[in-house]
Amino acid sequence: MSDESGTQDIPAGSPEGGGSPAGGPRPEPIRFFGTTWANHDNGYALRRVGVAVGSLAAAVASCLVLRFAYEGLRIADTGSFVTVLVIAMFAICSALAFRNTWDGFGKHPDPDRQASLRGLLAIGFVGSLLAYFLRSLTEAPGEKLHREEYEAALKLHEKRNSRRTGNPSKKKRRG
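Predicted structure:
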């Protein structure tokens, strides 16, 4: 199991981990969806609804917590500069986290860049939750990327396992 993503370390297209009945590649699991995204079965629609509702509820709850933090700044009478600075920080970090999360659904992120952005993404967690919510309205977050990899692995597997019929040395020559 990968520490970063919570998914298994078996890459898409790998026959390891049980394999498919034909011994071909298996779809890579997605968090909260497992491999139900491949055929949209086993409660896929309910999982998408659950993820959408859960991420939106978490975003709303997070905004309420941020509102309490804002009220704490007001009560502490820190001044308008600090208040504007904190609001701008959360707004900018949320926008960056949204964009980074949204882009991560279409391509694998660079691990070094992700590590350097970890603090910024933690501050902008509301943006990440909103990106997750919006993507789950149309598909499982990351489904398009996983589907492309899985279909490429299936094509490669099919190409490798296609057999020629007959003995090529006995083939009749045209002439």
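Summary: Confidence is low (pLDDT under 50) at residues 15-19.
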